[in-house]
Amino acid sequence: MLGSTLFVDKSRDRVRPVVNLFLDELEEIDQYSWASGTLAWLYRCLGQASRAGARGVAGCLTLLQCWIYEYFPGFRPSHFEPPVVGPDEAWASRWIGQPATGSVADPSVRLAFYRRALDSLTPADVFWTPFHQRPHLEVRRSLYTGVIRFADIGQFYDPARCLRQFGYRQMVPPPPSRPQRADRPEAPGGYVIRIPESFDAAWDALLSHMVHIDMYSQPWRTYPYETTADYLDWFVAHSHCRVLRDDGDADRLVDSAAVRFDH
């Protein structure tokens, strides 16, 4: 399970040696935060996959695929209404055995289709709170802000960048924390993000390292994707608003993104 589901790499039939270290003390397995470790590894793999020279993606893709299905209904399997799962069942089991939507034999055609679909998304096409209108009331740890880690791999986690997923208006988030070292070359093999272990102390001091959401923002009042007045300008300036680019008309891309996200 560890090497084939949670901490998958691109070797297919091998497991990172560090995974075996977690099995030395079997009586402590239930004390590990497997969820945050899995997420940290997935974040790192997605970062590597974003490099121009990448030819694949690793990590817990089951988690990624189910996350897509929950938040983006347009990408769900066709003509399928996910069942309600019981309290002792994994939420992802709702999607077991369902084929991907819009399956196309030619990979290049399929890629172009999904790129266009992503660029056509509007905020109304997103299901912002699929798990709970206020998920932090169910899982307080979801408001933790700091480093999540898998072995020597650390990734920053900041819920202030996705307040709408907690049922709150999105506002401009604070500047991100800086790693000790960050190398992101085109070749994914040289991708390095190094975060000092001193950052890990935040995990055990939740009250002082969490987004106090009721002080930070307000519940959305009109629609689930509501933002503050200054957020959209910040978003356009700091984000890649489209997957497909038109290099001959960059200004139009920015204007188009602002219109699509301004509701």
Automatic annotation (TrEMBL):
Gene Ontology biological process:
meristem maintenance
State what protein this is by name: Aminotransferase-like plant mobile domain-containing protein
Q: Which organism is it from?
A: Linum tenue
Q: Which domain of life is it from?
A: Eukaryota
One Pfam family from the record: PMD
Q: What is the lineage of its organism?
A: Eukaryota, Viridiplantae, Streptophyta, Embryophyta, Tracheophyta
Q: Entry's InterPro entries?
A: AminoTfrase-like_pln_mobile (IPR019557), MAIN-like (IPR044824)
Q: Which residues form the Aminotransferase-like plant mobile domain?
A: 1-235
